[in-house]
């Protein structure tokens, strides 16, 4: 094929001189291709969305470029080169940003990230996207093959897979060398074509700076890294250093990770995921609803596959409710609302929605997270997710699992220390991030659309009588979910809710997320580590008793406890009241423990109300009384 001509339109700007170093993206060798034409461009460009118009009379089976790039800063500079065909489809030819570059100046030669194997497409133009960077396009190379249809689809797929592996490797090399806090790998999004990513983001692919390759650790957004480098300091936080709804009260309260696929419906998944989590917390049990994102895409007027509003989606759920998934299955398309089933098994809604406004406060977000996950949107990515926790970045920590790439410990003077990394639940499937989750450090100025669900849940199947009120760890404090103490709780229990119902040593939670310690110090506790019998007449104790290490404490006479004294039985251990009496006791049975009552023994609890054995504990009563 002979290339007739290429014309281009560009604005040439003055560019500061920066030292060069070599960097060449991996691509298939094209030197021996039949019908290859090379065109000298010699175009210096420094702008955004610059278009080089092309007029090629024949179809193209391969398109490659050579040149160099100057990244003017180490935070958010980037260059992206795209090839657009006559149908408007776009193919990624070249892309670079700081973590992909060995230095501020980069050389690329005969690079074709997605365009090495094309199915004889007709080229329309080259699109160049740049931010605080300059690109010099030296040459373009065009190839033509008549038999591309069968062979090149397979080769293009293999090329994309090889490119993903190479980019992940290159990212990890630079991340490790520069002591960054995250790890890259191939993911569901990194393996998408550029056109599929356009669908994912509703038509416009933001510069993600490697977030599409994120696998683990703390991803620091470039805007935040710049703020910290410029001396954005933080005073010490009064809040608990970590919160994670994947492990609260010893359980994971979040629904399974799902994928929006190639549809810009993140806003719908954010709204539904937040509500599904809230339902579990509201009823204090794993209802585990799978609600219909497709209803929001097709019926809510909150958006479609080209994007939408998580706020409008939440308002729709609040006012109209949402049906289960099986009533309107997700298709990742702008399906018509008439395809929703006419007789759903349930319609679920909530009563109140609150916004954090356009100037969200870090402390108010943390306080809201103590109740339930919240809906969260990131401006620069036009992407909505579910916020499910955070952790304060601390010196001496490593933030991803062991890998071939070493990560230095965070130093005391690292500007990240003391700042929060927000834990997000994404809608990109479980192969992205750490099982679909990730930590992101970002400026709150980059966020909008932060909303929390409050109030009651309305369902055709469940009502407030289904709210579980229980003391699973046997510490005398009860857990009942997100609202005030419900009527399903016994009236005599404390008004303060248990902050961790899987740990008998922890009680209520304060406004900063810290838990009250209700296990006394070693000096105040008698530890039973071997089989022991209390047979002393009228023995009175002012010390707590802890039965542990698979031991048995047998009470065969009378043991009276001072007010507030507890007897705690750990998992695997046994308390046997055989012919004796245990009086005025706060009895705490851990799941896996055993209580034996025999020979007319008695247990007199120091609280009014029914005696309760937590789930997982065993109570065997052959004779005797508990009151």
Descriptive report:
- With 627 residues, the protein is of the alpha/beta class.
- It has three domains: 5-162, Jelly Rolls (Sandwich), CATH 2.60.120; 211-455, Cysteine proteinases (Cathepsin B, Chain A); 522-626, no CATH class.
- The protein is 14% helix and 31% strand.
- It contains seven helices and 35 strands.
- The strands form seven sheets. Strands 10, 11, 12, 15, 16, 17, 18, 19 and 20 form a nine-stranded mixed β-sheet that branches. Strands 23, 25, 26, 28, 29, 31, 33 and 35 form an eight-stranded parallel β-sheet that branches. Strands 1-3-8-5-6 form a five-stranded antiparallel β-sheet, with no helix packed on it.
- Helix 4 (266-283) packs across helix 6.
- It is elongated.
- The termini are far apart.
The structural domain count equals: 3
Low-confidence stretches: 1-34
Helix tally?
7
Beta fraction of the residues?
25-35%
Radius of gyration: 31 Å
**Average predicted confidence as pLDDT:** 86
Q: What would CATH call the architecture of the largest domain?
A: Alpha-Beta Complex
CATH C-level class of the largest domain is Alpha Beta
Shape: elongated
Tell me the CATH superfamily of the largest domain: Cysteine proteinases
How much helix is in the residues? Answer: 10-25%
Quantity of strands, as a count: 35
- The N- and C-terminal alpha carbons lie at a distance of 95 Å
Please name the CATH topology of the largest domain: Cathepsin B, Chain A
Describe the main β-sheet briefly.
9 strands, mixed
Structural class: alpha/beta
